[in-house]
Design brief:
The chain has 165 residues and is α+β, with helices and mostly antiparallel strands. The protein has two domains: 76 residues, Ubiquitin-like (UB roll); 73 residues, Orthogonal Bundle (DNA polymerase, domain 1), CATH 1.10.150. Helix content is 33%, strand content 16%. The strands form two sheets. It has a five-stranded mixed sheet, with helices on one face. Strands 6-7 form a two-stranded antiparallel sheet. Strand 1 and strand 2 form a beta hairpin. The protein is globular, with a radius of gyration of 16 Å. This is (2Fe-2S)-binding protein.
Amino acid sequence: MTVTFQLNGEDCRFDGDPMTPLVDILRQERFLTGTKAVCREGFCGACTVHVDDEAVPSCLKPVGLVHGCAVTTIEGMSSGNQALHPLQVNFEAADAVQCGMCFPGMVMSLSAFVRDNPHASRPEIKAAMVGNICRCTGYERIVDAVAECLDQARKAGQLVGGIHV
């Protein structure tokens, strides 16, 4: 079966078993290794991507179900001449990244969250992190990074993830 979809804004075609996990296509066929295949059960969050702007675990998403959809990976998160998404910048500034295994999935999950919740509180940010596991940093620095990103965007009247905050 042939599956076609947009991948980071470009046309993508896969000829093969439509039940192949999307994470395998991204990593093995497209060499987009920012998406991590860790638990393969959907609970760690390391493989999170956006499918039609919704954060989903790519280890549980058969490629056949993204036919006609827009898929965005961590590699596709920058926009225009920006090298990094504002969340990535704030993760770095807050020293929230250590080993890097959870980082791409956290950014993918939380970027969808901040887009939809530009005035989120710390407890709401913490609740949004359910489904993402980090074994290195503890979560406070990550929450700090998200809160700072939202605060900066509000003060500047800028867009975060496509919405005006």
